[in-house]
Specification:
Elements (H helix, E strand, L loop, with lengths): L9 H22 L10 H10 L13 H30 L1
Helix pairs in contact: 1-3
Amino acid sequence: MSSSWERIPLPLKFFLGFAIASYAIQMYLTYADPAGPEPGTTASFVVAWTICPVCILMPTVDPAPSSMTYVIGPINAVIHGLIGAMIGYVIEAFF
């Protein structure tokens, strides 16, 4: 008897895994105390743009927590989930 998780295609598993991890990391960085580079420095912009591809389109790198939770975080999760799905397709095709 196989579980329902085994019947889910590998790209979908990777999509879900990357999306959940991306959203969790984004929410942690939004609501955690800042321990990284000082805001406004070049290093803080590089870190934010690396983790948050949608932040490049934003006029500021430090949006309100509510917009990060309901708008930017889910968009980032979809972007990272699609990257995971592509990795899943490559693994499924070649291995």
